[in-house]
Design brief:
Distance between the termini: 37 Å
Number of helices: 6
Helix content: under 10%
Length: 639
């Protein structure tokens, strides 16, 4: 479904009256509201509120607030839980008696998820920044100009103005309709001479990805069944008879039944997004367990795998996201031949499932499908054990290499080139790639000098603004990394807070208040630019602190203007310290990369919405209760 801009509504941007409201907008269930707000001379804003139709909690996607002598800029999102009329309001949190503020509401329909975003500032030029977007995504732009430059606003590309108000500061809100995949520059080309702070946000459409290599049978690409003697499938119901033991992957598992029927519950991906699931995993008293199964290279079930313990690590920010180890106590599992289950040459994979009991029925979510490698056997007088390393499927693909083969992909689109790469080096891997119109140069080749395939698929994916990752089921997915657009867990301190422990690190040693960008392109020798904090009112002003210089070299920079733009954008990233947070909680292995978590621990100085970077957990043994898990949040900048 394509994203569409529906309407906008703005509050007053004059004066200091607080709170203030924008005119009501009419929403449909699932619509996304984007609020872009700002204030003059350091005026900060509180989280918006709304009346009328029910909305999800407001999520602050990006903000810039560094005190006086700059305008502030905020961007929040919320989704409609019901249809109806909605009135959005916002209030000032701080600011001088003569400072102004306001906000604009933009209403979108057909948004699959909130995509990438960025924030930046500069004391010169016009507000414009780079952002990598997916095919057909829309982009929202907002900016404040502390030195309100006069002149007509002109948007880069196909941008359209939504708000342009001069009230002490000058406030801009704009939008970009469907974009081509890749990295684009969004914002204003004029007027120049601004002292600006700006935000960008991507709104992604639903990506329709074709399914490859169906391994048994499939109903609307939702259901896959194995080992059924006879079965009958309808859209709303699955029925099996005379099945000794069979599974319906991706939905609630029922095994060893003589005959049974399951009403439609949806795939596991749909179940984990329901209020029922949230209630299960948030309950103070839970019954959980785990299981593992061997699958072949096509994902077909081979056999149940009885293990002692398993350590699973998920790192969403890395190319090889999955890893861990699994241990066994059965001597019969020792690999003695290439066809044995734990011998890497057998080509099997292990898939782990985390399970939770609710109202007499087990619900489960996969927690990784990995390749087994490097068995290690420990045989003492009174104990025996086998430990096997579990690796991300992509780690094994990278080892295959190209041999002596070069793969010509010149003139092909990026999606076709990526499919051709995997077909050549790892035809046993199932890969899903969305279509794109981005075409490679005519002379483009893969495998030169027996290059690392991982570097090649990363470069190809970068051209379309994509990443290459293995999903929970062992399929290699190429495309933008998905993120749920709502807060999936509330771990703020209080009576029902599940947080067992928390650690927080604040890093200031990587702060820089001067950025030098230097081109390394052969046809741009001598091209460079510098951006620095030249505001005497800033705590990181180069005349007071340091200066500390960050040097960035790039062959993508060909002009002084491009170098200046990159330097200004990167300076905003380095001017503030960063914080890293780890929390220990009861197991929640349904958490995905960039899932949003509300965290608060006053005495540690932790508060706000954090995004998940990864987690680690331990499964088993069967005779012990479930353990906690550690969740690592994405590093973020502090104001």
């Amino acid at each position: 479904m394509a994203v569409s801009f529906v309407t906008s509504s703005a509050s007053s941007y004059s004066g200091t009256s607080s709170p203030r409201s924008a005119s009501a907008v009419t929403v449909q269930t699932g619509d996304v509201l984007v609020v872009v707000g700002g204030g003059s001379d350091g005026t900060t804003l509180n989280t918006p509120t709304s009346t009328g139709a029910s909305l999800s909690s407001w999520t602050l996607q990006r903000s810039y607030s560094v005190g006086t002598s700059y305008g502030t800029i905020y961007l929040w999102t919320a989704s409609a839980n019901a249809s109806g009329s909605v009135t959005v309001s916002a209030s000032r949190n701080s600011g001088g008696t003569n400072t102004n503020y306001g906000f604009t509401v933009l209403l979108y329909r057909g948004v699959d998820q909130i995509g990438s975003s960025t924030v930046g500032n500069s004391s010169s030029g016009s507000p414009a920044m780079n952002l990598a977007v997916s095919q057909n995504s829309h982009v929202v732009f907002g900016a404040t100009d502390f030195n309100p430059a006069s002149g007509t606003e002109n948007y880069l590309g196909n941008g359209d103005a939504v708000t342009d108000v001069t009230s002490n500061n000058r406030f801009y809100v704009g939008k970009y309709d469907a974009q081509n995949a890749g990295t684009g520059t969004f914002g204003l080309s004029s007027p120049s001479g601004q002292k600006w702070a700006a935000v960008l946000l991507e709104l992604e459409e639903i990506q329709e990805v074709s399914t490859t290599r169906n391994v048994s049978w499939d109903v609307q690409q939702l259901v896959t069944a194995t080992r059924a003697v006879t079965y009958d499938v309808a859209i709303q119901q699955v029925t099996a008879t005379r099945a000794v033991a069979w599974d319906v992957l991706g939905r609630v598992q029922v095994t060893r039944a003589v005959s049974w029927s399951i009403a439609w519950l949806g795939t596991w991906r749909e179940i984990v997004n329901t209020p029922e699931w949230l209630g299960m995993v948030s309950a103070k008293s839970r019954t959980v367990t785990s299981r593992a199964e061997l699958v072949d290279g096509n994902g077909n079930f081979v056999q149940d795998l009885v293990f002692d313990t398993a350590n699973i690590e998920y790192r969403g920010e890395t190319a090889e996201a999955w890893g861990g180890s699994v241990s066994f106590k059965d001597p019969d599992m020792v690999p003695r031949a290439p066809s044995d289950k734990l011998d890497p040459r057998a080509g099997y994979r292990v898939r782990f499932w985390w399970r939770i009991l609710s109202e007499g029925q087990w619900f489960e979510v996969p927690v990784g499908t990995m390749i087994l490698d490097d068995p290690k056997i420990s045989d003492d007088m009174d104990s025996f054990g086998i430990t096997v390393t579990a690796r991300d499927i992509l780690s094994v693909v990278r080892r295959t290499g190209y041999g002596q083969e070069n793969i010509p992909v010149g003139g092909l689109t990026v999606d076709v080139a990526i499919k051709k790469l995997f077909a050549a080096v790892a035809p046993w891997v199932t890969v899903k790639v969305p279509p794109t119109t981005i075409v490679l140069p005519d002379a483009y080749q893969l495998g030169l000098d027996n290059a690392d395939p991982g570097k090649d698929w990363t470069k190809l994916a970068d051209l379309a603004g994509w990443v290459v990752r293995t999903d929970r089921m062992g399929t290699v997915l190429v495309g933008p990394q998905e993120a749920r657009a709502w807060i999936v867990a509330d771990w703020q301190e209080g009576a029902n807070c599940p947080v067992i422990s928390m650690s927080r690190g604040i890093t200031s040693s990587q702060m820089f208040n001067r950025v030098l960008v230097r081109s390394t392109a052969q046809d741009a020798v001598g091209v460079w630019a510098v951006a620095e904090d030249d505001d005497p009112g800033s705590p990181t002003w180069v005349g007071r602190w340091g200066p500390f210089t960050k040097v960035i070299e790039s062959d993508a920079v060909k002009t002084t203007e491009a170098a200046q733009q990159m330097a200004s954008m990167q300076l905003g990233r380095f001017l503030r310290p960063t914080e890293s947070v780890d929390v220990t909680v009861p197991q929640r292995p349904d958490l995905e990369y960039r899932d949003q978590i509300a965290l608060a621990r006053q005495r540690s100085g932790v508060g706000g919405v954090f995004m998940v970077s990864g987690w680690s957990l331990r499964l088993g043994p069967a005779d012990k209760g479930p353990e906690s898990m550690t969740v690592t949040m994405m590093t973020r900048s502090l104001d």
